[in-house]
Amino acid sequence: MSFAEVLAAAKELTADEQRELARELTAPPDDIPEHLRPFIPQPGAEVAMSPFLQVEGVDWNAVGQIADQFLPPPGTVPEMNWPIEASAENIAALKRVLAEADARP
Amino acid sequence: MNPLVTPYTLGAIGPGGPALLPLLPLRLSYFGRTLVPDGLVDSGASVNVLPFTLGQQLGLDWDKLSDGGPLGGALSTVSTRAVVLTADVGTFPRVRLAFLWAQVPLPRLILGQFNFFLEFDVSFFATRSQFTVAPRTP
Q: Which of A44, A78, B22, B121 could be B41's S-S partner, Cβ–Cβ 3.0 to 4.6 Å?
């Protein structure tokens, strides 16, 4: 089954089945079913090279709905994840260097 | 000036699994050195953040830049330097973007509220898996 077919089928899945699919797609790489592995880019890979993006007729809305399920629930965001919050000190530093740059010829 | 329409990009697998991301290719320059990274257009980020490795590739000198203060939020305790880079987005007029150069190997360049969102008007269309960027309206 191609990934395009997976996505098309996903639209017909029940909520439980979609969660099951999401679990498969979010599993550690070694646990991803063999037939899905070619469509998952590796960390650091050029995303444009992913076959995922080369599938014609992909329903990106369906992809987005599935992707939503990949997001961690509130309160479980990993330490190195977002959001980035700036302090007044950060903003002041940025404004200062911008002003300095603007003052240069 | 017509906005630049950019499709969402499938990001690499992270702790939360694969995700579609608003990644914007742009050209960053600093005193003759240039990089063309993809920046995450992140309306939830207060500031622009430059990963340490990209700063090194641009020739930034940590010891010669002014202190930007420690980042807050998810990146608290990370030291930064403040730096201004020139940025070219599409065919739009060149702008200056101020970054906090973070002393940590972040996976992505982050384009946040200060000052990317002050220089560009951004609209997200998740249902169409695309976003648009245009120079700010004077």
A: B22
What is the pTM (predicted TM-score) of this model? 0.64
Answer yes or no: do A93 and B46 touch at CB < 8 A: no
pLDDT tens sequence for chain B (138 residues): 899 999 998 765 555 556 678 999 999 999 999 999 999 999 888 899 999 999 999 999 999 999 998 877 656 677 899 999 999 999 999 999 999 999 877 778 999 999 999 999 999 998 888 999 999 987
Q: B38-41 and B109-111: which strand pairing? A: parallel
- Over residues A32-53, the mean pLDDT reads 45
Contact A96 B82 (CB under 8 A): yes
Alpha helices in chain B (DSSP H): 52-57, 116-119
| CA–CA separation, A95 and B98 (whole Å) | 8
| Class of residue B115 by CB neighbours under 10 A (exposed 0-12, middle 13-18, buried 19+) | buried
DSSP track, A90-103: HHHHHHHHHHHHHH
Instruction: State which residue of chain B sits closest to A67, comparing Cα positions.
Output: B19
Task: Evaluate whether B48 touches B97 at the Cβ level (below 8 Å).
Answer: yes
From the centroid of its chain, how far is CA B60?
16
Angle at A13 between CA A11 and CA A17, to 5 degrees: 135
Query: How large is the angle between the packed helices A15-25 and A3-10, nearest 10 degrees?
Result: 150
CA B107/CA B135 separation, integer angstroms: 26
CA count, 13 A, side-chain hemisphere, B124: 13
